[in-house]
Amino acid sequence: MRWTLVVPLKSLARAKSRLADTAGDGLRPGLALAFAEDTVAAALGCAAVRGVAVVTDDPLAGPRLAALGARIVPDEPAGGLNAALAHAVSVVRLNSPQSAVAALNADLPALRPPELARVLDAAAEFPRAFLADAVGSGTTLLSAGPRHALLPAFGTDSRARHRTSGAAELELGAVDSVRQDVDTGADLRAALALGVGPRTAAAARALGSARRIRSQGISGA
């Protein structure tokens, strides 16, 4: 089975607010874009993936992700994350009603195509399935097989909510790169330890340089 992935991405200006203690306002949008670019590039490199649809209205992120090969779907409902995902699935299935679809977080900069393939192959055994994040309370991937609704319930405690909705929890080892989303400085350090994509690596180097400049008291940093 091959999958179409739906990746939601909010406005870069509003993204990754929980990284405020790690990256200032001037660096967070660039980090969020780097995360998304590395996520999409890795997803498109996965043999189990037919295509990637990114739901975003961001004027910078849209063209950059389209250049990687993603389809850009406008966030027409503007009703939050779950509404955006439901809308994107409807767009994907308009021309391919039997498509197997999966929602994937946009902040998986360490994502490895073989690990994503393992998760999607396991998900193919169920009508709906999900993978919990590294912390254990959230969700990084939610799948729906052909003829099944996605029924996304992302947000606080989404692991419990997806389990309650009837989705099967995928309990797989050695897929850390698919679990490691980045919301905090600790998450970023964990992702860097796994090995991130080139864009996130470059953004992290810029972040490190900026922090060193600030610590040295050089004005204008």
What does this structure look like?
The chain is of the alpha/beta class and 221 residues long. The chain has one domain: Spore Coat Polysaccharide Biosynthesis Protein SpsA, Chain A (Alpha-Beta Complex), CATH 3.90.550. Helices cover 41% and strands 15% of the residues. The protein has 8 helices and 7 strands; from the N terminus they run E-H-E-H-E-H-E-H-E-E-H-E-H-H-H. Strands 3-2-1-4-6-5-7 form a 7-stranded mixed β-sheet, with helices on both faces. Helix 1 (28-44) packs parallel to helix 2 and helix 1 runs antiparallel to helix 8 (198-215). The longest helix has 18 residues, at 198-215. The radius of gyration is 17 Å and the shape is globular. The model is unreliable at 213-221 (pLDDT under 50).
Layout of helices and strands, plus pairs?
Blueprint lengths: L2 E6 L19 H17 L4 E7 L5 H8 L2 E3 L7 H15 L4 E5 L8 H11 L4 E5 L6 E6 L13 H7 L3 E2 L6 H4 L5 H10 L3 H18 L6
Parallel strand pairs: 1-2, 1-4, 2-3, 5-7
Antiparallel strand pairs: 4-6, 5-6
